[in-house]
Write a structure and sequence with these properties.
Order of helices and strands: EHEHHEHEHEEHHEEEHE
Strand content: 15-25%
Protein name: DUF4433 domain-containing protein
Family: Belongs to the DarT ADP-ribosyltransferase family.
Helix content: 25-40%
Strand order of the largest sheet: 1-4-9-10
Pfam families: DarT
Number of helices: 8
Largest sheet: 4 strands, mixed
GO molecular function: DNA binding; glycosyltransferase activity; nucleotidyltransferase activity
Structural class: alpha+beta
InterPro entries: DarT
Oligomer: single chain
Distance between the termini: 32 Å
Number of domains: 1
Mean pLDDT: 95
Shape: globular
Number of strands: 10
Radius of gyration: 16 Å
Low-confidence stretches: none
């Protein structure tokens, strides 16, 4: 049995209604063109850079043509969001929800994808679109709590921010489960899923959060 490579996308709970109603996660370019409002959990200037960064393997386009997933929890972006560097005030990670799938699931579904070995905007950066190249990703690093550069590993922070990129849209039918920080929040999300007749499991895994 092939070992699955887990991929994780996180968003604010305020975005769940439009995600559930639409039936999937959509890329930033499609969200803008459709006038979809969302609560941002990333730097606005970084989103601008992503809209100008070419994905150097098919299906091509720019980073904002893709729904981004990380290869592990506790990403640097989650930490900087929690610390108020995105919104200007400290944020509660209990309001953050993960959407979880796997690289193998995406490939089997026929969805187009690409992935990187590190931060997709910062140089050096390398793009791939063949799961045979997943070894270029430092998977052990993805599940460590801390990822700061060290003398022994000066490229650790960049590599920790590797992304799996799904072209245009990630349907909820391809999501394995959702994850919340607390059990009360899990119950809230499960109630929302039920209201939308969505049969997606939800789990509370506080270890995935700072």
């Amino acid at each position: 049995m092939t070992r699955r490579t887990r991929i994780l996308h996180f968003t604010h709970e305020d975005n769940l209604v439009q995600i559930f109603g639409r039936g999937g996660l959509v890329c930033d370019k499609q969200r803008r063109s459709s006038g979809i409002e969302s609560r941002n959990v990333a730097y606005s200037d970084l989103k601008l850079e992503r809209s100008q960064t070419i994905v150097e393997v098919p299906p091509g386009g720019t980073l904002d043509d893709y729904v981004p997933f990380y290869f592990g929890p506790k990403s640097p972006m989650m930490l900087t969001y929690m610390n108020g560097n995105v919104t200007g005030s400290l944020e509660d990670l209990n309001e953050i929800v993960y959407f979880v799938s796997s690289a193998q699931h995406v490939e089997a579904s026929g969805l187009k994808f690409a992935f990187t070995d590190g931060h997709p905007v910062k140089q050096p950066r390398f793009f791939y679109n063949d799961l045979a190249d997943l070894g270029e990703v430092d998977h052990a690093l993805m599940w460590q709590k801390w990822w700061h550069d060290t003398d022994e590993y000066p490229d650790r922070k960049r590599r920790r921010q590797a992304e799996f990129l799904v072209w245009r849209e990630m349907p909820l039918t391809e999501i394995d489960h959702l994850v919340t920080k607390s059990h009360p929040k899990r119950l809230e999300v499960e109630s929302m899923l039920s209201n939308w007749d969505l049969d997606i499991p939800c789990r509370a895994w506080p270890s995935w959060y700072y």
